[in-house]
Structures are given as C-alpha cells and as structure tokens.
Amino acid sequence: MKMQQEEAKQRRAQSNRESARRSRLRKQQYIAQLESKLNAQSVRMTRLSDEIGSKDAIIQTMKEATGIYVDDRCTDHNLLRNQFLSDVCEYAKGFTDVPQTLIAELVNARGY
Q: What's a single GO MF annotation on this record (predicted)?
C-alpha cells in the first residue's frame, strides 16, 4: 500500500513537472510572438514616419518653388492644406521642369 502511494506521488510530481515545462514553453512562445509583433510595428512606424517626412519635404519644396503658403495656425488646417495642395498641383502642371512624379505624390497626399 505504501509503495502504491509513493508511486502515485512520483507520478503526480512528474506530471506537475511536465505541466510546468509546457507552461514555460507556452509563455516563451507567447513572448516571442509579442516581440515579433512589436518589431513589426516598430518597422511600420519607422516607415510611416519616413513617408510623412517625405511628403512634408515635398510640400515644403513646392511651397518654396511656388511661393504659396498656408497659415498653419488656422483652425481648419486640413481644408486649407487640401486647398493648398490642389493649388500647388495646378500651378506645378504649368512647369515642364517639375517632375510628374512629384505632382502625383502631391495628388496622392491630398487624396483626390
């Protein structure tokens, strides 16, 4: 009888160790997934930040080239920004030395 109790105790201990091992493995996999998602989001954020910087640089270049400026203090900034981009696109179409890709970028930035 004592031998059976000892064997049952050892089986439970072994089962508990296996369960703990599986739990640690699941935790490691979960952490690896989170790290992977974090890295992907970080790359995405960097790409989006670069894209925004690129579009801002294009807009700034067009502002300087055309002399058209928008007052950033205006409360309806998006409306003015879109109007500005529309005006710049129309203005830039008249110049042969303005790359069409630049105008296309501006059109895309405005979203029309």
A: DNA binding
Section 70-96 average pLDDT: 64
Same domain, 41 and 90: no
Confidence of residue 9 (pLDDT cuts 50, 70, 90): very high
Q: Are 110 and 89 in contact (CB under 8 A)?
A: yes
Domain around 95:
71-111
Mean local confidence (pLDDT), 80-89: 69
First to last CA, the chain: 84
Whether 34 and 24 map to the same domain: the answer is yes
Q: Are 98 and 65 in contact (CB under 8 A)?
A: yes
Q: Based on the domain organization, do 64 and 107 belong to the same domain?
A: no
How many folded domains does the chain comprise?
2
Q: Taking residues 15-33, what's their average pLDDT?
A: 95
Do 54 and 3 belong to one domain? yes
How wide is the angle at C-alpha 57 spanned by C-alphas 52 and 60, nearest 5°? 125
Residue identified by tokens 């369960």 is 19
